[in-house]
Amino acid sequence: MRCWLMKSEPDVFSFDDLMRAEGRTTSWEGVRNYRARNFMKEMELGDRVLYYHSNADPPGVAGVAEVARLAYPDHTARDPSSDYYDPKATADKPIWEMVDIRAVAPLRRFVSLDELKADPRLAAMLVVQKGQRLSVMPVTSEELAVVIELGGGLG
DNA sequence: GCCAACGTTGGC
DNA sequence: GCCAACGTTGGC
User: Fold this and answer.
1) What pLDDT digit, counting tens, does each position of A22-58 carry?
2) Closest residue by C-alpha to C1' distance, nucleotide B10
C-alpha cells in the first residue's frame, strides 16, 4: 500500500465537490504528463491520497481520498471536444490513463502549503519543493500521517 | 540527438 | 498578471 498526493484546482473540482459526487467518487481525467501517468499506473486499490488544492488561495491539503479503480484509458484524450484532447491517442494506444478516487474524509482543518513547508518532518515532500509541478506524486505513509495530524485528524 | 522556442504549471 | 521552473516540440 502506497500513499500519494494529487492536485486539483478547487475552482474546477474541489474536495467538497468530491464529497458531493455520486459514490463520493470521480475519475481523475486530464493528466497529460508521463511521470504523473506512470505514478497512477503504480497505484493499487485502497491506496491513500492527499487531496491537494492547487491554484488556490491558499493552496494546501483539504482531505484524504483512496484509489477506487486501477488505471484505465482516459477517454477524454480521444474526445475532440475535450480540453484534454490529444490527437496522438488512439483506441490501440490510448497513451493517457486515469484512476478513480473516492473521498475518505476531509481534514478537520485545511492544511496550507505554508504549514507543510514549516514542518521539518515534511522537508522531503515533493510538493513543498520549489519548481515541483507534478500533479500526481508519491508521499510516504509517515508524511501522510503528519499531514493528517496537522489537520487535526479526519473530519 | 541536440537545443531553442514554446507552452504549462502553479505560487506569489 | 508575473514569472521561474519545467516539459514538450520540432528543425536541423
Assistant:
1) 999 999 999 999 999 999 999 999 999 999 999 999 9
2) A55
